[in-house]
# Entry
Amino acid sequence: MARPVRFNITPKERDHQSHIGVADAPEGFTGEGFFTTKLSEVVGLARKNSLWPLPFATSCCGIEFMATMGAHYDFGRFGAERMGFTPRQCDMLMVMGTIAKKMGPVLRQVYIQMSEPRWVIAVGACASSGGIFDSYSVLQGIDQIIPVDVYVPGCPPRPEAILDGVMALQDLVERESIRRRNTEKYQQLMLSYGIQ
Amino acid sequence: MELTNEHIKTRLTEKFGDQVSDFVEPHGMLTFTAPKEMNLKVLQFLYDDPELRFRFLTDLQAVHYPDNKGKELAVVYHLHNLTDNIRVRFKIFAAIETPDVYTATQLYACANWMERETYDFFGVNFVGHPNLKRILNVEEMDYFPMRKEFPLEDQTRVDKDDDMFGR
# Structure
């Protein structure tokens, strides 16, 4: 009878050439000894593959995130190797866990302290919508105080789901214009949250 | 002489007569009630009396009984005699329109934060408290959330955005 396990039952020969993942070059014009492309594509590629996450973990989703950072799921594969525990250096705020109303101003302060460009992932039901805490003390989703780019559902989400959320964010980052902060739409969004 | 529930009851009745009432012993813990104006006198007696010596305030909180007209809010003191390891529970009742209760902070310093918490959640106004303001909830909150007129899942709330989550 075949084993139900699908992984690691047919050992492969090591292949150093094709197993090392390298981000594909953006579209452009290649000639002998040169390559031209748009600056925005290069910057998008660089930003996408070197996101600095700022974990804002308050509860069980944070534990899942720790598993995501660990060796098995290895967040570093996506270029987000280094956690920065200061908002000044980071560009990806990951909010994991229940945010109480009293925590709201703290989270907002952290977001304001991040420099542009900055993105936010709301990991888990609580950060996205308040989750099961339909209560007087819990913020009903962090998008009430800061703009959110990607919502990751789950209570808590598995590490695969968090990785999926990060990859969705990478798609956003890659396609965004270099100076998103100058666009009128973005400024209006910030203004609607009262953030200058 | 060993301190027993009967003895505490006798001492209290000797001192206060009919004013302490409703003696019951759920799970062996002596529980009694006094008028709310008497709370400091009873607490002071329990603290000072050389036999009773209830010098430790374990807990202080309120309970809301919406159907108990005129006595909607109960303030409950849990006292502990650390020498004899005996506990008592002491209740006073206040109307929800006038939830004014004398503060126990002069007697038990630890009552400070407990009374702030009780004020925060039930709106009991502790007269004479040095710093009666909200302790756990956000300061902008304009109601007392543990009172039973506020349902646990309030469908009329405006801070909940259900559009995306299918509730």
